[in-house]
């Protein structure tokens, strides 16, 4: 595993701003729609949705998938996502991209296969995630499509925040 990286965009990481519909009852946000017709969304079908809530400011990192595409949306709180392209055939191989997300600007992040990713969030942050395949396949009959490396592989400093 190399620890050399370049800071920059990663081919295949896609962030879509989401529209918040507000009325006297509250809000409604479409997180994913099949008819959005873009290269990031229509290639895959959604097979799993889950919710993650943080009790601490723990770092959940790093892992990548060979078959699974992840979708992330923070619906409450704030989070910092770190992505590192580990695809040797990618034009952005070894690039690192950092994306800060807040519930004040709802966004959907698409993470392609072969990209290491992780996140750190404030206490009380809630993330909704979708996956293009089932983690262990139908009836959990297959091995986990996940390769993990330590959370500080690219330096513990990537998880620090800047006070301004």
Topology:
Layout: E1 6-7, E2 14-17, E3 20-23, E4 26-29, E5 48-53, E6 59-64, E7 70-76, E8 78-85, E9 95-102, E10 107-111, E11 115-121, E12 126-131, E13 147-148
Parallel strand pairs: 1-9
Antiparallel strand pairs: 2-10, 3-4, 5-12, 6-11, 6-13, 7-10, 7-12, 8-9, 8-11
Please estimate the helix content: under 10%
CATH domain class name:
Mainly Beta
Helix-strand pattern, N to C? EEEEEEEEEEEEE
Low-confidence residue ranges: none
Per DSSP, what share of the residues sits in E-state strands of 2 or more residues?
35-45%
**How is the biggest beta sheet arranged?**
6 strands, mixed
Structural class: mainly beta
Number of helices: 0
Q: Spatial order of the strands in the main sheet?
A: 1-9-8-11-6-13
* Cα distance spanning the termini: 34 Å
Task: Report what the structure shows.
The protein has no helices and 13 strands. Strand 3 (20-23) and strand 4 form a beta hairpin. It is 0% helix and 42% strand. The chain has a single domain, classed as Jelly Rolls (Sandwich), CATH 2.60.120. It is globular, with a radius of gyration of 16 Å. The protein has a six-stranded mixed sheet with strand order 1-9-8-11-6-13, with no helix packed on it. A five-stranded antiparallel sheet has the order 2-10-7-12-5, with no helix packed on it. Strands 3-4 form a two-stranded antiparallel ribbon. By secondary structure, the chain is an all-beta fold.
């Amino acid at each position: 595993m190399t620890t050399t990286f370049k800071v920059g965009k990663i081919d295949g990481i896609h962030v879509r701003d989401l529209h918040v519909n507000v009325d006297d009852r509250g809000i409604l946000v479409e997180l994913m729609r099949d008819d959005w017709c873009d290269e990031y969304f229509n290639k895959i079908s959604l097979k799993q949705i889950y919710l993650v809530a943080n009790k601490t400011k723990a770092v959940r990192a790093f892992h990548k998938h060979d078959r699974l595409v992840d979708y992330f949306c923070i619906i409450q709180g704030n989070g910092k996502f770190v992505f590192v392209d580990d695809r040797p055939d990618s034009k952005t191989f070894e690039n690192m991209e950092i994306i800060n997300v807040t519930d004040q600007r709802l966004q959907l992040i698409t993470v392609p296969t072969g990209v290491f990713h992780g996140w750190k969030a404030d206490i009380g942050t809630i993330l909704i995630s979708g996956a293009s395949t089932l983690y262990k396949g139908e009836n959990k009959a297959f091995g986990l499509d996940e390769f993990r490396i330590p959370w500080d592989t690219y330096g513990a400093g990537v998880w620090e925040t800047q006070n301004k």
